[in-house]
Amino acid sequence: MIRTLRRPPTPLLLSAAIPMTHEQQHVRVEFDALKSLLLQIFLKHGTSQTVADILAANCAGCERDGAISHGIFRIPGYLASLDTGWVDGKAEPEISVVSPSFIRIDARNGFAQPALAVAADAIDAAVEATGIAVVATRNSHHFSALWPDVEPFARRGLMAITFVNGLANVVPHGGRAPVYGTNPIAFATPVSGADPLVVDQATSVMANGEVRLHALANRSLPEGTGVDRNGIPSTDPHAVLAGGALNTFGGYKGSSIALMVELMAGALTGGQLSFENDFGDCLGAQTPKAGQLLIVIDPERGGNNDFARRVSVLCDRLIEAGQERLPGARRYENRRQSTLLGIPVSDGKLLELENLAGN
Fold first, then answer.
1. Rounded to whole angstroms, what are the CA distances from 145 to 46, 162, 182, 186, 198?
2. In angstroms, what CA-CA distances link 332 with 139, 189, 337, 354?
3. Could you give the C-alpha distances from 252 to 75, 171, 235, 290, 292, in angstroms and in order?
4. What is the mean pLDDT of the chain?
5. Active site members
6. How far apart are CA 63 and CA 185, in angstroms?
7. pTM of the predicted model, to two decimals?
């Protein structure tokens, strides 16, 4: 059983501080406690209750699952975008069901996840009626990992794939100036007798959040990660972030996939292309205003009742062939450990969050 320590002003701590490297102290925090603290922060910075609840759960979930580049590390960026007025934390999205399978969402300059939540009933109705839902969201801000958007569908026996574009910080293959965002793709599918198979990856060599973590640690990037503001290859994360850009993975092949994401998330949705983002007077804002395309499929439509078992067979074969682990396995293990022991958060970061919440 996890022991709760008393520490005013918030009862967040679950275990005694554990000595860590770099003389940092870490504590363990329950998911619900961390979510509650983040919810207070979002509310204090002008979001609606619904938006705060969704963003807090998303951010705490990323931290719980070990995706620290998309967890509480992102809070300053969220708040800067809210405080400058770049994003509307109380936006009420407009949902348009334009055909039995096609749903358009205008997020009205709000966050993407609350917009998808509002469309949940329409998505379910489309899948029930036709076996597929195509959801095109524009005027939205997505500042998190993508696996939280698709994993819930897979846990209900559905397949889901999503594409998001963003702020131009990736050069096309052979180029010297940024055109694409990191343009991530995520997909999830049910697996018989196991957790869903979930893949979430950027089409850049490295996610922007990872570059920022390298910069904070003054740690060099691997060769081939990016270029400086002059288009010269650089392993300096500060140079890549200060007017430079990332490369796509896999040379021209990855560049083509980034192009596909730009078309799907930026053009097809009716949203902005990555290079069209302009923060204007909203200095310090970080959340890109772009688009998201989500496709949800019922794999058993038409009598394919063996789908999840076939996926299981494929997953087993991958491990037998020598693949070390399946995509998402590390995330699931982090989730299990954090559920059992609490989410590890540095003592300094916890105090920072408490101050932001006004506690």
1. 23, 11, 12, 9, 12
2. 32, 15, 9, 28
3. 34, 11, 20, 24, 23
4. 92
5. 69-70, 210
6. 20
7. 0.91
CA 287 to the chain's CA centroid: 12
Query: How many beta carbons lie within 10 A of that of residue 22, not counting itself?
Result: 6
Question: Which helix or strand (DSSP H or E) is residue 37 part of?
Answer: helix 31-44
Q: How far is CA 207 from CA 108, 144, 270, 298, 341, in A?
A: 26, 11, 24, 30, 28
Asked if residue 5 has pLDDT above 70, the reply is no
Query: Does the pLDDT of residue 339 top 60, yes or no?
Result: yes
pLDDT above 90: residue 24:
no
For residue 79, is it left (φ>0), alpha (ψ between -120 and 50) or beta? alpha
Q: Calculate the CA dihedral of residues 104, 109, 114, 118 and round it to 10 degrees.
A: -40
Distance CA 144, CA 60 (A): 11
**Closest among 179, 163, 188 to 292, alpha carbons compared:** 163
Three-class secondary structure of residue 287 per DSSP: coil
358 forms bridges with which residues in the sheet?
none
pLDDT in tens, 295-338: 999 999 988 999 999 999 999 999 999 999 999 999 999 999 99
Give the total residue count for the chain.
Answer: 359
SS3 at position 315: helix
13: left (phi over 0), alpha (psi -120 to 50) or beta: beta
The single-letter DSSP state of residue 19 is: E
Of residues 257, 266, 259, the one with CA closest to residue 289: 266
Strand partners, 162: 186, 294
Question: Given a cut of 70, is residue 22 above it in pLDDT?
Answer: no
